[in-house]
């Protein structure tokens, strides 16, 4: 019974953190308080996570496999309303479209793919990478909360690679990340963590730039069969920055080096001429 209780508390951790509750007609309400804000407003990864959480609730028994989200407005403080709409695709696949609004403004639109996942087989293709040092014993990196408030919610431990704003040659970062409030390791949590590191071009800079996400996509690549809270190895790399746009690729792995999900973000670089 204690084990079930721990899992239930962790599973409710993300929804509880953002006060996400159903408000009738399939809709959900949530609030991203200022402690979860990023550079200039509510943390985009929290909006991704909420859209995935609402979608998963709309299709009980199915597993989230992919999410595509586009920001179509600028979120601000106050309540968000998430409205899911489910479409059946064949016998076992569901597409959940989620509209995220704030007042009369549309903030984001998401499309989440979910479906039945079969049992593991001997000939499955599974992506593993060489083990890296675990989070134990690694120094914690504190994101200054006066600059990025949501950093105070994270336990972030860099493994290797350059740090942000150090004028490095390489545009990538890799770190173990978990939230200080325990949350179940599910697709919504991976969506949150995929956006937790700064834009991957930041190590090459010496002063911050506003680089907001316009488009976010994530694909789940492994069965998330252990809901217990756990650190995730997040590796983000910038693959292109030019013409005022920047594209990052991110992988999320477990302690065994198994790929849990891959994500990609297209970002608009604001004030690129000042670089």
Automatic annotation (TrEMBL):
<dbReference type="Pfam" id="PF20789">
    <property type="entry name" value="4HBT_3C"/>
</dbReference>
<dbReference type="InterPro" id="IPR049450">
    <property type="entry name" value="ACOT8-like_C"/>
</dbReference>
<feature type="domain" description="Acyl-CoA thioesterase-like N-terminal HotDog">
    <location>
        <begin position="35"/>
        <end position="114"/>
    </location>
</feature>
<protein>
    <recommendedName>
        <fullName>Acyl-CoA thioesterase</fullName>
    </recommendedName>
</protein>
<dbReference type="InterPro" id="IPR052389">
    <property type="entry name" value="Sec_Metab_Biosynth-Assoc"/>
</dbReference>
<dbReference type="InterPro" id="IPR029069">
    <property type="entry name" value="HotDog_dom_sf"/>
</dbReference>
<dbReference type="InterPro" id="IPR042171">
    <property type="entry name" value="Acyl-CoA_hotdog"/>
</dbReference>
<dbReference type="Pfam" id="PF13622">
    <property type="entry name" value="4HBT_3"/>
</dbReference>
<feature type="domain" description="Acyl-CoA thioesterase-like C-terminal">
    <location>
        <begin position="141"/>
        <end position="266"/>
    </location>
</feature>
<dbReference type="InterPro" id="IPR049449">
    <property type="entry name" value="TesB_ACOT8-like_N"/>
</dbReference>
């Amino acid at each position: 019974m204690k084990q079930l209780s721990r899992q239930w508390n962790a599973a409710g951790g993300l929804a509880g953190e953002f006060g996400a509750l159903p408000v009738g007609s399939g809709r959900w309400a949530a609030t991203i308080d200022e402690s979860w804000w990023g550079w200039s407003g509510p943390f985009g990864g929290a909006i991704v996570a909420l859209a995935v959480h609402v979608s998963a609730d709309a299709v009980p028994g199915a597993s989230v496999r992919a999410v595509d989200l586009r920001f179509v407005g600028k979120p601000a403080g106050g309540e968000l309303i998430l409205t899911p709409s489910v479409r059946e695709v064949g016998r076992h696949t569901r597409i959940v479209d989620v509209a995220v609004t704030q007042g009369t403004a549309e903030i984001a639109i998401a499309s989440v793919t979910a479906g039945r996942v079969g049992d593991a087989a001997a000939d499955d293709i599974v992506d593993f990478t060489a083990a890296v040092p675990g989070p134990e014993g690694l120094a914690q990196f504190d994101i200054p909360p006066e600059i990025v408030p949501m950093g105070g919610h994270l336990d972030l431990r860099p493994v290797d690679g350059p740090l942000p704003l150090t004028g490095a040659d390489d545009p990538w970062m890799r770190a173990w990340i978990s939230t200080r409030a325990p949350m179940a390791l599910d697709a919504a949590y991976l969506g949150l963590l995929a956006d937790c590191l700064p834009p991957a071009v930041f190590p090459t800079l010496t002063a911050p730039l506003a680089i907001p996400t316009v488009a976010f996509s994530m694909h789940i690549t492994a069965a998330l069969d252990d809901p217990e809270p756990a650190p995730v190895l997040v590796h983000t790399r910038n693959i292109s920055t030019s013409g005022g746009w920047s594209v990052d690729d991110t992988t999320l792995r477990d302690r065994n080096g198994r790929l849990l999900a891959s994500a990609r973000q297209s970002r608009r670089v604001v004030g690129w001429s000042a670089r």
